[in-house]
Amino acid sequence: MADDGNAEVGAMDGTASPGARARRLDRRSFLFGSAAGLGALGLGGCATTDGVILAEATRIYGPMPDEKFPIPAVDVRKVDPKYYRRTVRYESKEAPGTIVVDPRNFYVYRIEGDGSATRYGANVGRDGFLWSGDAYVGRKSEWATWTPPKEMIRRQPEAAKYARGMPGGLDNPLGARTLHLYQNGAYTLYTIYASSEPESIGSGITSGCVGLLSQDMIHLYARTPVKTKVVVLPA
User: Fold this and answer.
1) According to the UniProt record, where is the region Disordered (predicted)?
2) Residue range(s) defining the domain that contains residue 44
3) pLDDT, tens only, 177-197
4) 180: which strand partners?
5) Whose CB among 14, 34, 41, 220 lies 3.0–4.6 Å from 29's, allowing a Cys bridge?
């Protein structure tokens, strides 16, 4: 999909007049997208630079001190910019509000309608734990208690100490918000959850669950009612 919203700045050939060079370097024209500034920089409609993108990401992924357990800012340098939250073109037959998980590309989409979606970077299941199909949000939790399933305890005996549940908090694997996925009235044990590990975004590390950065998960959670359809695409 051609929805990254990135463009390379054209090279300056050094043959232009001093006035043209001044226009190229005019910060106001660059930031606010005047025709002269865009034409001189050869941006082809893209009025951003790495610095502007980083500044915006720093704002979006800043600290959330008012949470029950205050959430620190994300070190956005640990996240590939292609996984920053953004609105993209995304054609889908699904109804607005539907969540689409694309584990192959490490993205989660919320369908907005009119051919667009909000896109979030994600971590997904590792090899052997990937799954696909339709589900729905059966319940929602804030700072949920995490209880490892028996299968996990068998694979990872160190998880046994939480067999009766790990209280919510920054160290809890489910994080600040959780969407619990159901099929035919039964809990699948899979979730979309809040991750506090920015370096995990864009990788397959979980036992089938899907993780978003805490700030992204809170953003998605607030816009997702119970019964929302979730489509998990094949990997």
Assistant:
1) 1-20
2) 1-48
3) 999 999 999 999 999 999 999
4) 139, 191
5) 34
